[in-house]
Amino acid sequence: QLQLVESGGGLVQPGGSLRLSCATSGFTVDSYSIAWFRQAPGKEREGVSCIGKSGGSTNYADSAKGRFTISRDRAKNTVYLQMISLKPEDTAVYYCAAVSRIVGLCVLSAVAYDYWGQGTQVTVSS
pLDDT tens digits for 86-102? Predict the structure, then answer.
């Protein structure tokens, strides 16, 4: 079965950095659009960043632009989210998700994605 497993979360001070990983199995990352979402307690799940199929585009939420970078390592079948200048407002469970039917582009809408990981906790606090 298709699987996505997030890792790299943890506790970091404001202004710090983390790199999240989404390791995939059962498919090739180039064949899917992959996105990062996050959900804080009492909040709706929100899109953070996404990367389209090979040759496609990337997209970022306004809150992530200039601070977060999404990338893929084709050899490792892994997608990363590099986060810098972290703020307490970034505290959430971060999920990766994948969908095959979006060609070239990606969207930050949770309903568009078919496959989900279990999430990794990111806590930004002093």
Answer: 999 999 999 999 998 77
